[in-house]
Write a structure and sequence with these properties.
The chain is mostly helical. It has one domain. About 85% of the residues lie in helices and about 0% in strands. It has five helices and no strands. It has helices at about 5-35, 40-60, 65-75, 80-105, 110-140. About 25% of the residues are buried. The chain binds fe (ii) ion. Fe (ii) ion binds near residues 23, 128 and 131.
Length: about 140
């Protein structure tokens, strides 16, 4: 239970640090997908890995008492923005799953597919950036 501003900041920083290896893994996968998924087979494999990684990562962030909870509990003015990040999780995960399924059907080599994949990568990076900005705001207050 958070009993002071310092306790709140400690809880947020601890949750952020615990998730850092996952954030490194997600960013690495996105970089690899963007820069090195040149064949349809590689794209399919990497999208499958991304889907599994994101499903686990997003669940960890949303655990009761976890990362998002610690921010929302400490900085109630950020509750709406945290809720927005949770909503984005559902959208980003379903888009990833859809692209993964389409890749398995053989669409990964198509130009339109590649454009949609690049859009997804951009949205995921923006989501993670927004999340870190909220952490900075919470820790600065
Ligand atoms: Fe994240």
């Amino acid at each position: 239970m958070i009993t002071s501003a310092d306790d709140g900041k400690v809880a947020i920083a601890r949750a952020r640090d615990a998730l850092e290896p996952e954030h490194v893994a997600v960013r690495g996968l996105l970089d690899t997908l963007h820069d090195h998924a040149t064949t349809a087979k590689d794209t399919q494999r990497l999208l499958s890995e991304l889907h599994k990684t994101l499903a686990k990562h997003f669940a960890h962030e949303s655990y009761p008492g976890g990362f998002y909870d610690s921010i929302a509990a400490f900085r109630t003015e950020l509750v709406v923005e945290i809720g927005g990040l949770v909503d984005e999780h559902f959208l980003l995960l379903s888009t990833t799953q859809s692209l993964r399924e389409r890749a398995e059907k053989g669409e990964a080599g198509e130009a339109r597919f590649r454009a949609e994949l690049d859009t997804l990568i951009g949205r995921l990076l923006a989501h993670e950036k927004h999340e870190l900005e909220l952490v900075e705001i919470a820790l600065d207050g």
